[in-house]
Amino acid sequence: MNVDALVSKAKRMCDSKGARFTPIREKVFRLLASTKSGVGAYDLLEQLKVTETSAKPATVYRALDFLAEQGFIHKIESTNAFMLCHHFDSIHPVQLLICDQCGHVDELHSSVLSHELSELASQSGFSVSSQTIEAHGICKRCQS
C-alpha cells in the first residue's frame, strides 16, 4: 500500500474515533511510512526539522505516543526505534525480524506463536495483554 493510501486510512480511523490526526502527526507518520527499518526519535526529529524548523524532541515524542495509542506504529524495544504498522486496521500478534546489519525490519503475524506464548503464560498464572516478539539476525539481502 502506498503512503498516501496509508495516510487516508489512518485519517479515517482517527475520524471514526474522534482523534485528531494533526499535520505534525501526519508528517511523523509519513516519515515512518517511508522506511523499511526502525527509526529512532532523534532521527525522526532531524528529518522533521527539514519542514518544521521549530520542532523539539517533545514534538516527536508526543506524535509517537499518539501514533502508538492509535495502533499505527510498533516500538522496537531492543533498538529503541519505531516503525509503521501497515496492518493497523486490526489487532494482531506481532513478531519482528530485525537485521543487525542493515536495520531492515520485517513484521510477521503468527497466531500460532501468539497462542503458544499465551498458553505457556497462562500455565504460569500470567495473563498476556499484548505481545511483540523481536528476533535479531541477518536478512536475506545481507546474507548474499
UniProtKB/TrEMBL annotation:
Q: Which organism is it from?
A: Pseudoalteromonas ruthenica
- Family membership noted in the UniProt record: Belongs to the Fur family.
Q: Which GO terms describe its cellular component?
A: cytosol
Q: What is this protein called?
A: Ferric uptake regulation protein
Record note on quaternary structure: Homodimer.
Q: What is its main location?
A: cytoplasm
Q: Name its cellular compartments.
A: Cytoplasm
Q: What is the lineage of its organism?
A: Bacteria, Pseudomonadati, Pseudomonadota, Gammaproteobacteria, Alteromonadales
Gene label: fur
Cofactor or coenzyme needed = Zn(2+)
Please tell me where Zn(2+) binds in this chain: C99, C102, C139, C142
* PANTHER family (UniProt xref): ZINC UPTAKE REGULATION PROTEIN
**Key words of the record:** Cytoplasm, DNA-binding, Iron, Metal-binding, Repressor, Transcription, Transcription regulation, Zinc
| UniProt GO BP | negative regulation of DNA-templated transcription; regulation of secondary metabolite biosynthetic process
Keyword Cytoplasm assigned to the entry: answer is yes
Record flagged with keyword Transcription: yes
- Which GO-annotated molecular functions does the record name? DNA-binding transcription factor activity; transcription cis-regulatory region binding; zinc ion binding
InterPro entries linked: FUR (IPR002481), Fur_C (IPR043135), WH-like_DNA-bd_sf (IPR036388), WH_DNA-bd_sf (IPR036390)
Q: How is the cofactor bound?
A: Binds 1 zinc ion per subunit.
